[in-house]
Amino acid sequence: MNDDLKLLIRTIADYPKPGIQFRDITTLLLDGPGFGAAIDRMAAAVREPPALVAGIEARGFIFGAALAQRLGCGLVLLRKQNKLPGRVAGINYALEYGEDRIEMHSDAVAPGARVLLVDDLIATGGTALAGVELLRGAGAHVVGASFVIDLPGLGGAARLRASGVAVDTLVEFEGE
Ligand code: AMP
């Protein structure tokens, strides 16, 4: 399934540190029809258009922005620490490699708003779960989460589903 897209994703071994197989979506982005097909297929998986797409910095912005346009909805940015100029809410979380914090403008999401979370890849799910917590903390209804790539061996998609979020992904890579 989506083998055409999988072929457009490059793997770089030992980046950013030894033992990590980095799944590089920049090669998918370079391919116009491939990038377009990825957005078409992410959009096709959306049952009911949300009020907002939430894109996770940085690669989630690329797919999130394109998907929001395709769905005819707005985009809320979940950014790294100290990037947003207004009042923010934030969550610290553990990464596959390292630790991080994401923040969102406190007034960006109306209570009860239906929000679809988007990123390029789900690994352990730490980033996406932090996003869900942030959005739910603002009163949003997280109706789903969409990723280009799933690393099922790391269990993130399963963890996200266990927290009550419908997850859609286009391609899977076994191992890390
Ligand atoms: P996680 O929080 O473990 O689900 O990691 C997901 C985030 O880290 C996403 O924003 C990805 O872009 C990035 N990431 C984690 N592992 C990889 C990987 N093997 N290749 C590319 N990006 C990754």
Can you count the helices?
6
| Ends distance | 20 Å
Q: What do the pLDDT scores average to?
A: 96
What is the CATH first-level class name? Answer: Alpha Beta
Strand content: 25-35%
> How many strands, what sense, and barrel or not for the largest sheet?
7 strands, mixed
Q: What name is given to the CATH topology?
A: Rossmann fold
CATH architecture: 3-Layer(aba) Sandwich
Q: Count the strands? A: 9
Spatial sequence of strands, sheet with the most strands: 5-6-4-3-7-8-9
**Low-confidence parts, pLDDT < 50 over ≥5 residues?**
none
Number of domains: 1
Describe what this molecule looks like in 3D.
- By secondary structure, the protein is of the alpha/beta class.
- It has one domain (48-172): Rossmann fold, CATH 3.40.50.2020.
- It contains 6 helices and 9 strands.
- The chain has helices spanning 3-6, 26-29, 32-44, 59-71, 126-137, 156-162; strands at residues 10-13, 21-24, 52-56, 74-80, 88-94, 99-105, 114-122, 141-150, 167-172.
- Strands 5-6-4-3-7-8-9 form a 7-stranded mixed beta sheet, with helices on both faces.
- α6 (156-162) links the parallel β8 and β9.
- α3 crosses α4 (59-71).
- The longest helix is centred in the first third of the chain and has 13 residues, at 32-44.
- The protein binds adenosine monophosphate.
- Adenosine monophosphate binds next to β2, β7 and α5.
